[in-house]
Design a protein that fits this description.
Cathepsin D, subunit A, domain 1, 36% strand, disulfide bond, aspartic-type endopeptidase activity, Peptidase_aspartic_dom_sf, SAP-like
């Protein structure tokens, strides 16, 4: 797979009440984590602050550069709201020292952290760290502590995993509830320590991934940026659900909201309902930045596959992935997938996802690995997959849940409030170039819901055509809209405290279990697996 090297000059805007906003520019490379460049950015204490993230080669996964130790060692980590441990790759990790494993997993190690070079390192617990992915792979090692810096903000003695066995060459920055840590004895994790050490006013952060054609998104810890979303910020409760093994008596350990409905909508007003309220009132849905794709319960996913004509590669040595016709990229902006959350009592929210966010044209050059009898000339990876393979492989015991990854999250602005156990959600204002930041406080009665901008401020590219197609955009799907127009953008007025300028085996059912890893030609699928099954799909056993 070719490495995409795209350097973007980005602006990081910080604000402190009563102090002029600080702007810092630095370069990031979008591409394989091990090839990333960049330097940390100076940030101010006791403020809402922003870190710029960059997409990896698949257009998914968002990485952040940090420094660990004294003196600081630059390390790249994948940001993950679906797990709670920060963990680093050791230079002597099995993957880093074995060419055979690197070939098997189609990965190598990005810059690692060497505790021997740090004067502030401490060993916390030998062999105490072990975390498992849904595909069965494991990262394990010791628990350590060391200073951890994001720009000029330094967390003293942050506890982290130190992986000596891993199938990934890049570590994970988990920013979930400490109850979801990969240990029986919880500890203050990154978000806890940011708050405990007075670096943010509330254990809350806002995630803005931007659309997949953008080089970067951002995370705002301790604040809300009202320029990054449209209309009202809806507030939803974080719920507990036994399907994830959560103890309902002790509170949530994951960012779970209720997915109450889905539909396909066209700008001409026609609508195709997918979830019927008579079937189930809602599905528990995890909002997970560490997962590239979006996974839905098999019953629901199969309805969507049927409506789009998607097929699943269920060959004996196939991928298990669901594929879709790349021509659906040309349906933009007429075809919208709408996700509905919550209820009238606890709070509601609706997020529209354009179809081009769900059609991933990343398989060029690997057509010979795909089934030979697909019904289209050009296959894309579908941004929606079924949880059925997780259940059939034994990774989970109940597949009646949704895992909303980046193919969903890029269309949403999401505030994760660990202090008040709430989620804020609104339609993302894509490609916003300004910031109006409202700082959050643990003293607030709950998550505030300031209004965002009145309408989409930037117009995304009007055409996303298949890269291998030379024909003009056409509609081949049976769901083709009958007329064109523009989607609803919501209403509201901006508010805030600080403003800154700008073959056999192909079936419509998933039957073959989780992704298989194998050397040789299957290495390409290992790369996809690494992109899909990251920290967010981890479960602690």
């Amino acid at each position: 797979m070719k490495t995409v090297s795209l350097t973007a000059l980005l602006t990081l805007a910080c604000s402190v009440s009563g102090v002029a906003a600080q702007h810092v520019q630095f370069s990031l490379n979008r591409g394989i984590p091990g090839l990333r460049l960049g330097s940390p950015s100076p940030l101010s204490r006791r403020q809402a602050y922003t870190e710029i993230l960059a997409n990896n080669i698949t257009g998914g996964l968002y990485f952040i550069d940090v420094e660990v130790g004294t003196p600081g060692q630059t390390v790249t980590l994948a940001l993950d709201t679906g797990s709670s441990d920060a963990w680093l790759v050791a230079p002597n990790a099995d993957l880093c020292t074995s060419k055979a494993l690197q070939g098997y997993y189609a990965d190598s190690c990005s810059p690692t952290y060497n505790y021997k070079k740090s004067s502030s390192y401490k060993l916390v617990r030998t062999s105490g760290f072990q975390i498992q992915y849904l595909d069965g792979s494991v990262a394990s090692g010791d628990y350590i502590s060391d200073n951890f810096s994001i720009g000029d903000v330094t967390i003293k003695s942050l506890q982290m995993g130190y992986a000596t066995e891993t199938v990934r060459g890049t570590g994970i920055l988990g920013i979930g509830f400490s109850a979801n840590e990969a240990t029986t004895k919880t500890y203050p994790n990154l978000i806890d320590e940011l708050f405990n050490q007075g670096l943010i006013g509330s254990k809350a952060y806002s995630l803005y991934l931007n659309d997949r054609r953008s080089d970067a998104g951002n995370i705002l810890l301790g604040g809300i940026d009202t320029d990054k979303y449209i209309g009202k910020l809806d507030v939803l409760p974080i719920v507990t659900d036994p399907v994830f093994g959560e103890d309902t008596s002790t509170g949530p350990s994951a960012f779970v909201v209720g997915l109450s409905g889905m539909s396909l909508e066209y700008t001409n007003g026609s609508n195709v309902e997918i979830i019927s309220p008579r079937i189930k009132s809602s599905y528990p849905a995890i909002l997970d930045s560490g997962t590239t794709l979006t996974y839905l319960p098999d019953y629901l996913a199969q309805q969507i596959f049927d409506k789009f004509g998607a097929v699943t590669d269920a060959r004996k040595r196939g991928t298990g992935l669901t594929l879709i016709d790349c021509e659906l990229l040309n349906a933009e902006p007429d075809l919208i997938m709408t996700f509905r959350f919550g209820n009238s009592t606890a709070g509601q929210s609706t997020i529209d996802v354009p179809i081009w966010e769900m059609v991933l044209d990343i398989l060029q050059g690997y057509e010979d690995l795909l089934p030979s009898n697909l019904p289209w000339d050009h296959a894309c990876l579908f941004g929606i997959q079924s949880t059925g393979p997780f259940e059939s492989s034994g990774s989970v015991t109940n597949g009646n849940f949704a895992l909303l990854g980046e193919t969903f999250l890029r269309s949403a602005y999401v505030v994760y409030d660990l202090t008040h156990v709430q989620i804020g959600m609104a339609q993302a204002n894509l490609n916003s170039t300004t910031s109006t930041i409202v700082e959050l406080s643990a003293k607030d009665a709950g998550l505030p819901s300031p209004s965002g901008v009145k309408a989409q401020q930037q117009t995304p590219s009007s055409t996303v055509s298949s890269s291998s197609s030379s024909s003009s955009p056409t509609e081949t799907s049976s769901l083709s809209p009958t007329s064109s127009g523009s989607s609803s953008t919501g209403t509201g007025s901006g508010s805030g405290t600080t403003t800154t300028a700008p073959t056999a085996g192909v079936t419509s059912e998933a039957k073959n279990g989780a992704l298989s890893r194998r050397p040789g030609s299957g290495g390409m699928w290992s790369v996809l697996a690494a992109a899909i099954f990251v920290g967010g799909t981890m479960v602690v056993l």
